[in-house]
């Protein structure tokens, strides 16, 4: 399914800097009320929190795949319709929504041998190359639409772009945008860097500059390699929220509430992965963050099903 909807074009507001939050990926977790509410309160409101001397306006853009072709490893899979996203859209009030295909046909670049893009690398298994390409392409397409089509039509100049997966939740309020150094990419401290990053508009596309580009040709005058030093922000603590089938509850050592509906499973936060990155970067924060994540895990485990609030 490929369709778009748009709210009235945002107007530049005097005295404010403008940022675009791009939620890009599968809609599977975003249809759960608890996930959408967390993103609104912790991410959107956190980024836009004013500080003396600097005020930001954050516009939300949804680039969603409603159908799923890559649900594996015992996870729940759904083919959603746009109706299931209405409640979340009402909360997030996106400026623009685009429903994207679940996958894209890979297109090879004319790269010299050994300089192939990351998705086409010999180190990547052939059976997952198409999935990686689709993820990279979807992100690039979202950036390109924002900067080449939407921005000039709306008459708004975005000073910052935030790319985030729609299936991650935040354990604490994300710092306000005024705290970020936009000359470099900033990522979450608790998950893979490509789950969330903040960057200036010159570095458009996936955080991995070789995701679609030939190695050695991934930087330019607008996005210089010398400035592209990834920073992991301890104030951004996120974990993936996955819908799991009830049959995996015992294996995952959780006790979901009993529900009449068999259409959905339960939300599971991947807290066990948190310390793999955080422990290397900020070892003093690991115990507190794990404790916080486990408290969130219980809350999301018991959260209402989609369409019930």
From TrEMBL:
Name of the protein: Uncharacterized protein
Taxonomic classification: Eukaryota, Sar, Alveolata, Dinophyceae, Suessiales
Superkingdom as given in the UniProt entry: Eukaryota
């Amino acid at each position: 399914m490929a369709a778009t909807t748009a709210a009235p074009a945002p107007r530049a507001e005097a005295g404010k800097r403008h940022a675009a939050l791009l939620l890009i990926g599968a809609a599977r977790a975003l249809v759960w009320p608890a996930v959408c509410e967390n993103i609104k309160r912790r991410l959107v409101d956190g980024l836009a929190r004013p500080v003396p001397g600097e005020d930001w306006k954050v516009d939300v853009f949804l680039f969603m795949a409603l159908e799923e072709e890559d649900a594996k490893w015992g996870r729940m899979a759904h083919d959603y319709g746009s109706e299931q996203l209405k409640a979340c859209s009402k909360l997030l009030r996106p400026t623009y929504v685009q429903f994207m295909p679940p996958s894209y046909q890979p297109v090879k670049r004319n790269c010299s041998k050994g300089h192939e893009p990351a998705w086409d690398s010999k180190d990547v298994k052939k059976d997952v190359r198409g999935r990686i390409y689709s993820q990279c392409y979807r992100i690039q397409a979202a950036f390109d639409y924002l900067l080449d089509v939407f921005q000039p039509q709306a008459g708004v100049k975005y000073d910052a772009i935030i790319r985030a997966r729609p299936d991650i939740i935040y354990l604490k309020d994300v710092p306000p945008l005024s705290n970020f150094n936009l000359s470099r990419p900033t990522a979450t401290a608790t998950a893979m860097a490509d789950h969330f990053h903040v960057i200036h508009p010159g570095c458009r596309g996936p955080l991995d500059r070789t995701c679609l580009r030939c190695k050695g040709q991934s930087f330019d005058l607008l996005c210089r390699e010398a400035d592209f030093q990834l920073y992991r922000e301890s104030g951004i603590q996120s974990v993936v929220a996955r819908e799991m089938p009830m049959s995996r509850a015992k294996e995952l050592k959780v006790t979901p509430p009993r529900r009449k509906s068999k259409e959905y499973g339960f939300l599971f936060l991947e807290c066990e992965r948190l310390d793999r990155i955080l422990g290397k970067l900020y070892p003093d924060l690991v115990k507190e963050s794990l404790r916080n994540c486990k408290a969130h895990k219980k809350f999301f485990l018991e959260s209402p099903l989609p369409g019930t609030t």
